[in-house]
Amino acid sequence: MDENEEFEDATEEVFNSNVMMSAIKTVDASQHLFYQNKFTESHDLIDDLANESLYHAHGMTALSVLEALMTFKDEDFKKAIACADITLKLSDQLAKESLGAKLRGTFDSGRYKNWSDERVHAILVRAEALVFKTAVSVMSSGTDIFAIANACLSIRESYKTLEQCQKILKLKKWDSEELKYEFENGIKFGLGVYMLYLSILPGKILTILEWIGFKGDKDGGLDLLYQAAESGTCRSIMSIWFSMAYHYIFQFQFGAVGEINGIDIAKTNQHLAFVSKSFPDGVIIRFNQGKRAQIEGDLHKAIQFFTPVEVGWTNFSHFCYWDLYWSHGMSGNFKEAADFAAKLVKESAWSPAIYTWMQAVALIALNDSQASTKAKELLNSVEGLRQKIGGKSIPDEKFAGKKALNYSNGKTKMIFGFLEAAYWFNYLKVGNKNQNIARFWLQHIQARESELDENSEESGVARLLKANIYNQLGRYVEAAAEAQIILKLFPKPKNEPQLCPSALFELGNSFRLQGKSDDALKCFDRARSDYTKYPFEHRLHFRCHTFKQLIQSNKESTF
Predict the structure, then answer these.
(1) Nearest-angstrom CA–CA distance, 542 and 519
(2) Quick check: helix, strand or coil at residue 445?
(3) CB of 240 within 8 A of CB of 229?
(4) % of the chain at pLDDT higher than 90
(5) Which residues are within 8 A (CB) of 417 and not within 5 positions of it... i.e. 6 or more apart?
(6) What is the pTM of this model?
(7) pLDDT score at 239
């Protein structure tokens, strides 16, 4: 440490802790307004001091990031990044840490002992602001390799700073117990988010990241987030939001939430119940209530929650339309599902090819000649709607395009097209909690599978869907039998290359549910290693990864 740094630390400016606590409470109040759909009021509460007060700036950053993620508009992404830059500037001014100290990146236990409470809060806020800015930058840049590279550097700095904050918490003599408590739970929030979301990564990648100092731990991360959520601090609501997003959106969409003996979400459900009472009409809360209802198989309730409330967030309505499509479709309301897909085609620019394919398979499921004619017209247009990013095709669109082409060429009837789409987007599992849904779809397949050549690959798709539904109904031996028939009849399918790895996955799940853990693990490993270059490969790999984690953690689900 040089002489200037020693002098700087020894002559700490006197701060009024009441001023910072007042700012923190104001930010917390603004978040409460935001979750009550009072967006203008929430911004107005902190806007006047957002360019000069550390926590007012940080609160504005948090609100702007949330809004950008809800709207996905370029101008909102730019606003969020600008807010984060202001927060970073203010945190640097308050922390007054020299460039040399930042570059060294080492922790000196004596360095922070005379720092004021407010000054160490500036270090914590800087770490969180880097997370917010990084998330928005990556989401708004798509596949920009430079943005991703910069994100990696920022994430490492942020993570290391949070680890230093842990040490500061223990070593520093605090003037304000309130600020200490806020600081402690800010650390729990930040590290909890990192540990939870890093745990999603495949084992090999996670091992490399842990070698350079990161830590991925699902249970540890959730525990920290739950502690912060129940602390009554200004990070509480954000902590609840991150755990809900992880369980209700990410793990439901890609992983093992909603599966029999799947991921335990009881604590997150308790927190959802709490915020539902606090913000009964909040659109963000209602959306999570809808996801919760989907997991339970209560699709009627899900539809009520997903019905959009006008708040000026057009793209957020598109998220609702997406889940309304699946909730109606899995209820057998194919016309309503097709209507919501049509709304997405008209209003959303995300993937016209996928939306058009979704509309078509819902119309085919109606089993009506007029609807089928319309479906054929739609499918003929799918190939021309496909997009490319960085010169490469989008895998999901490539699958939809191939299915559409095979339908147009008479190679497939796609009579189970909707159900197959539900399988890949992970909505078929809503029958796990509501067996009436599972029985409805089993009867649907049994009523129409005779229309297919039993040796056709399309009949293999029907068997795959039955294997999944048999597992939902507890008929594990029958599920295993269907999967084994697929592996025997279609060892090298031409039109449906995803059949064999998917059958191995369903076979592994039937073994898992029968308590045959070793056999299940072998199936999951084979599904990942024995096959490659098929549609939805990454989705299936992640399902295998999460189901292996279920076996290894040996924890059962609480819906």
Answers:
(1) 19
(2) helix
(3) yes
(4) 72
(5) 360, 361, 364, 365, 403
(6) 0.91
(7) 96
- Dump pLDDT digits (tens) for 361-400: 999 999 999 999 999 999 999 999 998 776 777 889 999 9
Partners of residue 388 on adjacent β-strands? 393
Q: Residue 402: exposed, middle, or buried by beta-carbon count in 10 A (0-12, 13-18, 19+)?
A: middle
- Alpha carbons 123 and 177: distance in angstroms, whole number: 18
Alpha carbon 462 to its chain centroid, in Å, reads 29
Element (H, E) at 214: none
Q: Which one, of 385, 324, 392, 388, lies nearest residue 354 by Cα?
A: 385
302-318 residue pLDDT tens: 999 999 988 777 788 99
Cα–Cα distance for residue pair 289/303, rounded to 1 Å: 10
Q: What 3-state class would DSSP assign to 388?
A: strand
Per the DSSP assignment, residues forming a β-bridge with 392 are: 389
Distance CA(445)–CA(105), nearest Å, equals 61
Note the pLDDT tens digit of each residue in 237-255. 999 999 999 999 999 999 9
Phi-psi region at 474: left, alpha or beta (left = phi > 0; alpha = psi -120 to 50): left
Per DSSP, the three-state class of 316 is helix
Amino acid at 6: E
Those residues whose C-beta lies under 8 Å from the C-beta of residue 377, and which sit 6 or more positions away, are: none
Residue 306: burial class (beta carbons within 10 Å; 0-12, 13-18, 19+): buried
Q: What span, in angstroms and rounded, lies between the C-alpha atoms of 54 and 56?
A: 6
Which contacts of 79-84 are long-range, i.e. CB under 8 A and separated by 24 or more positions? 80/132, 80/133, 80/136, 81/133, 81/136, 81/137, 81/140, 83/50, 83/57, 84/129, 84/130, 84/132, 84/133, 84/136
